[in-house]
Amino acid sequence: MSRRLAAGRSLLGRRIDRESPVTFRFDGRRMDGLKGDTLASALLANGQTMVGRSFKYHRPRGIMAAGPEEPNALVNLGSGARLEPNQRATTTPLFDGLEAESQNRWPSLGFDVGAINARLSRFLPAGFYYKTFMWPRSFWKHVYEPIIRASAGLGRAPQKPDADTYEHYHAHVDLLVVGGGVAGLQAARLAAVAGAQVLVIEQQDHWGGRAAVDGGTIEGEHAEYWVQRTVEALSALPNVDMRTGCVGSGVYDHGYALAAERLAPAERPGAVAGPRQRLWRIRARRIVTATGAIERPLSFAGNDLPGVMLASAVRDYLVDYAVTPGDAVVVVTNNDDGYRTALALCDAGIQVPAIIDARSRVTGDLPSQARAAGLRVETGSAIARVTGQRRVTGVDICPQGSDGTQAERLACDAVAMAGGWSPVVHLWSHCGGKLLWDEATASFRPDPDRPPLGADGQGFVLAAGAANGEGRLGPALVDGDAAGRAVIAALGLKLPRGTAPAPQARAPEEEPLAPVWIMPREADAARRSKMWLDFQNDVKVSDVQLAAREGYESVEHTKRYTTLGMATDQGKLSNINGLAVLSDALSAAIPEVGTTTFRPPYTPLTIGAIAGEARGDLFQPVRRTPMHDLLDAAGAEWEPVGHWRRPYAFPRAGESTHDAVMREVRNTREAVGLLDASTLGKILVKGPDAGRFLDMLYTNMMSSLKPGRCRYGLMCSENGFLMDDGVVARIDDETFLCHTTSGGADRIHGHMEEWLQTEWWDWKVYTANLTEQFAQVAVVGPRARDLLQSLGGDIDLSAEALPFMGWAEGRIGDFKARVFRISFSGELSFEVAVPAGRGAEFWQALMQAGAPLGVMPYGTEALHIMRAEKGFIMIGDESDGTVIPQDLGLDWAISKKKDDYLGKRAQARMHMASDERWRLVGLETLDGSVLPDGAYAVAPGHNDTGQRNMIGRVTSTYHSPTLGRGIAMGLVLHGPERMGETLSFAKVDGSTVEAQIVDPVFYDREGARQNV
Amino acid sequence: MSEHEHVTGGPRLLSPRGMVTIRADFSELKTGDAVAAALGPAFPDTNCATNAKGRSLLWMSPDELLLICPAKETEALIVAARDALSRLPGGHHLVVDVSDARVAFAIEGPGARDVLARLTPADLRPGVFDAPQLRRTRLSQVAAAIWQSAPDRFEILCFRSVAGYVARLLEGAAGQGAPVGHLDRDARAGSRAR
């Protein structure tokens, strides 16, 4: 059984503090751990070998690794608003009061109903879902999908908003070093000495990578002391920032990298202020990935039983936490490194019944030490299978070349497997770095000739140390040193004279590994179906072989068919083993089969870290007009318009929104209403070529507009489609003020600048977006002039001095103002612009002065109804990006005299000029009801895809309080030629409603009301 | 102080000032000289600002400056700038009052860079971004200009409609419990003490 070794063996447990006990809960059970433990080491110390069930077959699973590659030990961490699913126990620092819950089991870890799947595994082969749930088709939605979703595994989704906060931080550095092992530290040290600004990040809470556990000496001292001295020296430098608990997540174009820093993980909940994680958004001129390597499992039957662990993890737990996975640990290996684990166990007094080495010739330094220590070394051997139900009880050993049927049983309660090391090439590969197959180590390592390229055409990522295939102490240091020197050269820096060469290191010589992908080599089908490749997604050797037999030759297809490497660990343990099995089944070389694509993030990021501060009221910026607070106090019901908030209506106490809208329309038509029009875009266009420029931008003629006058205009994209509309006022000979739609100001300003900067760069025109400089109020209704005149000022507002479509400048009351006589409602209307800083004051002045006249504010819905009563189009309702002005009967606003305008040529194309296009009409239901928005007019027969034929659709539809019935606009095939015809519009409930085609101008066709 | 970034008094909204957008062809040296002579501050270098007579000229783009001045001078300086530019050959320009279009916040102290670096992708490293430089960039999701008006004093200019959003952003970034200590080295000791 796994347990903590007693104190007294002073070399063990270097990360724990035996004087600082902490308690935690696992599945509700109280357990004891020590400060410095990870959740995984504490669970093992408590004898908790089984920590979860597997995803598909619900097999018992134990802790397998000691780092982020852990596939099995995923837990729900915390509870309530701090519940986090799928947390790796191996990277979760233990703290007092931690609560963890195992996953993938029901009702309990010991007794799990889903384990029946394991009995059915013969019927759940690779591609099972694809094969089974195809038929009958209707069952997918109603039967299969709900069941699959309910039984789908892994953690519970939190039900409450995350109680923690997160932040982003943008850093710019010369060099980012990912990984604080000896190679990364050496590279950082050189670059720092040469004067580079360096950020070094390390995912663990301590520096040095594997050096401290795996031993060896640097410059005559234990490697750990060199690490300590180097870290101290680096931390003292002003140009170096060292961060532990900070994992490199992704590398992107142009030296952009993401890293997630864990802040204050301990003593939750409540006690720690500030963010829980910091997402680093790093722009680095060069990146050194010194991310180490991950040990591979070996594929033998029963390699997933709790108690089977990676050999390196076994010695990590032993050395760092004084925890042993068992009392008798069999080591199985294909290389010399596995012997380190056997020797460490032996030193700690743990029994090692045998070292099973797949190689037939074993003569290296480490095996010699093992033999000298009296350990039994079985060469040319394999594990035929692991015995035990919920945990290891023994292993059957057999010759590696056999089929495994003739075997000797060895009793043990844990197995340490050493299958060789795979460099962590993820970050190198994220942005396109290519890999080489290295025969000697049987692994993919970065190809230095094909790095990810930066904007300067040079590689901006350098791999170093074990991540570069140089896993042994001495070569790793030399490689880190070389990476540091390469970075210095690339940055144009120089090392000070007399900088020492790479430090000298000593470690035992190791002999080559034997590439062993299946154990034993001739294993029968029964054994192959118990050899796990992907532990988290339950993919076995037999599944990959089945995929190959069924014709899946591409590794990317096999991955998706079998789900190999698709779990939350992204196949950190399984990818190389899986593709080796695939290449063997295809009789192809491993490099020919290749790897799947490495995608960020390296380890899962919590959504909160990605969101950063953008949550709650900072989720999106909300734009507020100068009158926002006043309107809010007046009871505005808000609606989003772009990032703006605009009042939809102002319902009074006890009044429905609909009734409020009706009241606002009636009051505006009968007395006077106020609309906050500040959101309208206001772009100043000035210069000798301004008229010519606007003639190109608008479909109609703007250069002929007289100063003091306004004109309505349409803007089209170069593809001819209507994109914006608004009123243009000519300020003086050279200057125009262009009003855009509320959502369109920034886009239209950008559109103008793009044409000026890229096509018409020699035209003398400047633009300025003045949208935010002015507050604008539409004063609308028969009493509008009375209201403005009552405020006094120096502008003559009479019909003679300021006629319809004129504008004037001066003072209204004591407000500096521009007054535009334009109308979107059909009523007498003045739009008054005042400096934004006085907008709220101006609004209040109007409300006060207007009280005797019956003034009321109105919202966007009343605005919409009044414009629809007048047949005015609305961008976004009547237009949708596929509509041209001609569709809307706006030919009058398209100049025939101009040689050109943006969209003119496009509008001449055959399809645009076709009379089969749907065109704008008014619609009136026969029964006075309101047509459903977006409803289609249906015609007899069906189209090619079996739908009912459609000949038109509703674009705007309202109840008109002015007319007392429903009115609508729509686009209809041959619409204007069909006045008086009745169409059927389909409703959602399957019924239809009849409506007559009428003129879209429903009210005051002559325009008498606005022209007073 | 140990729990927070080293900023003095937190971010604060500055009272309204005059602001004027000036667009002209500054690739002609005399255009810039004419503006400088009319307004006081010298013509600014790229990404920089200049000060004189309580007025500042901010470089916004190759053909755009922003004048910041006392509110009561705004109208007279607009006239002065227009007159000076009109006298040049061609004389094509745009000078317009934008005093109400933007608001400004100030944040000061050695920790101010680390506060802003939580929100902006701009490179704020000392030696890269020093007074009197200015960057047009973004703060989180909105456009903003960051102007180092004096060493370790930063003015943030943003549009009026998002003033509330930016105020909340800055308060949030300055009020975090854990100093980053990346650009502000003195804060690092605290942040490493976990």
From TrEMBL, chain A:
Ranges where the GCVT N-terminal domain occurs: 627-898
Residues annotated as domain FAD/NAD(P)-binding: 174-427
Domain annotation Aminomethyltransferase C-terminal: ranges: 919-1004
Keyword Aminoacyl-tRNA synthetase: no
BP-aspect Gene Ontology terms: tetrahydrofolate metabolic process
Keyword Thylakoid found: no
Source taxon at top rank: Bacteria
Alphabetized Pfam families for the sequence: Fer2_4, GCV_T, GCV_T_C, Pyr_redox_2, SO_alpha_A3
MF terms in GO: sarcosine oxidase activity
Keyword annotations from UniProtKB, A to Z: Oxidoreductase
Residue ranges occupied by any SoxA A3 domain in the UniProt entry: 529-612
Family, similarity comment: Belongs to the GcvT family.
Family matches, as NCBIfam families: soxA (TIGR01372)
Name of the protein: Sarcosine oxidase subunit alpha
UniProtKB/TrEMBL annotation, chain B:
InterPro entries linked to this entry: SoxG (IPR007375), TrmE/GcvT-like (IPR027266)
UniProt xrefs under Pfam families: SoxG
Highest taxon in the source lineage: Bacteria
Name recorded for this polypeptide: Uncharacterized protein
Species annotation: Brevirhabdus pacifica
Organism placement in taxonomy: Bacteria, Pseudomonadati, Pseudomonadota, Alphaproteobacteria, Rhodobacterales
